[in-house]
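in:
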């Protein structure tokens, strides 16, 4: 483990480090919330401040360290925390395994919790804590947040949270930030310039990650609590023609391999397959072919259509994987049998089905980087991405409109085709 290489703390970070010091006006608060842009130095400021405060104020007490998942907590919080402790020369014991995963620093205990599942919430029950630190708190279920706050009952306990903004109707915004005087919340808003460790070049790269008109840019780059409204892929729907490709384009850009995504239709929805191809080092992500059928067809006809689709795909490209909507296990088994019978070598798998927002952010950033193409004949994919809008009636949740009037099936099958390599594509491993 190497030690943390500090650059000077920014003015905003120093406030986060010191707001609790006895005698300061800001120390009258019980909460601190640092929100704002990504990479703006919130987490490092919170870790350092939380360590200083908890060590100087308490001895022999328990504290909560919470992240959305254990993985995220270890990577984003524990890792840098251990490096910071090393740099400061503070000894620490890290007990990794078991339900009592914790850090022991000085006389205090820091227990690790994941907010993302019910066990996390249950594990909190019965604990008496002198404080908690919630990293990415806007991604926590409200029940966990309440439970966590309720556990901090030792006199002088304080609650530390940081997050990227979400919708303005999010409870962290409405219940804490907007009512900060009454709830005694010290509020600090971070922008990328509040992190002195970011080079201008890196800041510029983050600014270019999302289209300026997208909700992700407003939230993650500008750090604003904004509702997702209007077009889901604004840059694409504004000029779809710009992203269409033809045979000539394919001659110039060789496809290394392809993956199929499958969404099964229901009473109101269509069956949809998307074949996506990748050029060298994931330079371009290209929708090569599609199948779309709104009629109700029996499982045999669906299997025949799939076998045809796979044959067509394998005739032109290296295609060995299909990711299917995991809600339909019988249909998946049927496709698998049909491919075996047709002697096609393709592995039929369950789609990853991660958070929809991650998939939406993924396509928005591909489009912003001008790395997405759609073959001109794939009219359903083009139409689906042009039409996609957020549901005005469910503004707290960032949901795409799905009322039968727009094609969400092509969106799903297209996303399933890239989801397993989403991060490799974005960060080009
Ligand atoms: N004072 C500092 N010295 C050295 N590096 C720093 C300092 N502050 C922040 N960094 C580095 O800058 C990067 C971003 O900081 P940090 O993770 O705290 O940002 P964040 O606002 O929590 O970002 P996100 O919203 O993406 O979680 C990290 O690599 C972190 O180590
Ligand atoms: Mg962070």
């Amino acid at each position: 483990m190497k030690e943390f290489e500090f650059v000077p703390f920014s003015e905003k970070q120093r406030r986060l480090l010191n707001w609790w010091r006895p005698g300061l006006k800001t120390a009258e608060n019980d909460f601190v919330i640092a929100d704002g842009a990504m990479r703006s130095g919130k987490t490092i400021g919170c870790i350092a401040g939380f360590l200083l405060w908890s060590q100087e104020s308490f001895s022999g007490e328990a504290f909560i360290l919470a992240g959305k998942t254990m993985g995220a907590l270890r990577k984003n919080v524990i890792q840098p925390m251990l490096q910071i402790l090393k740099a400061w020369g503070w000894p620490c014991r890290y007990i990794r395994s078991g339900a009592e995963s914790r850090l022991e620093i000085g006389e205090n205990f820091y227990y690790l919790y994941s907010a993302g599942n019910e066990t996390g919430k249950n594990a909190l029950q019965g604990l008496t804590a002198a404080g908690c630190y919630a990293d990415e708190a806007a991604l926590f279920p409200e029940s966990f947040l309440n439970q966590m706050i309720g556990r901090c009952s030792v006199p002088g306990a304080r609650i530390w949270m940081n997050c990227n903004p979400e919708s303005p109707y999010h409870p962290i915004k409405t219940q804490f930030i907007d009512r900060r005087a009454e709830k005694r919340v010290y509020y600090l808003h971070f922008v990328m310039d509040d992190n002195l460790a970011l080079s201008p070049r890196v800041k510029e790269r983050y600014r270019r990650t999302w289209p300026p008109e997208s909700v992700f840019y407003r939230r993650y780059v500008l750090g604003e609590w904004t509702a997702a409204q209007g077009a889901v892929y604004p840059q694409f729907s504004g000029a779809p023609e710009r992203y269409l490709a033809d045979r000539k384009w394919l001659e110039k850009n060789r496809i290394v391999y392809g993956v199929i995504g499958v969404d099964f239709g229901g009473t109101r929805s269509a069956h949809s397959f998307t074949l996506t191809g990748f050029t060298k080092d994931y330079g371009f992500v290209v929708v090569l072919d599609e199948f779309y059928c709104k009629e109700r067809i029996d499982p045999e006809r669906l299997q025949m259509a799939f076998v045809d689709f796979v044959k067509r795909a394998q005739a032109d490209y290296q295609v060995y994987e299909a990711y299917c909507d995991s809600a339909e296990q019988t249909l998946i088994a049927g496709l698998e049998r049909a491919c075996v019978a047709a002697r096609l070598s393709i592995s039929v798998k369950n789609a990853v089905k991660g958070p929809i927002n991650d998939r939406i952010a993924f396509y928005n950033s591909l489009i912003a980087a001008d790395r997405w193409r759609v073959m001109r004949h794939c009219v359903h994919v083009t139409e689906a991405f042009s039409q996609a809008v957020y549901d005005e009636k469910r503004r707290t949740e960032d949901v795409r409109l799905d009322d039968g009037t727009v094609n969400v099936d092509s969106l799903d099958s297209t996303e399933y085709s890239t989801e397993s390599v989403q991060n490799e594509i974005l960060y080009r491993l």
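note: The chain has two domains: 11-207, 234-427.
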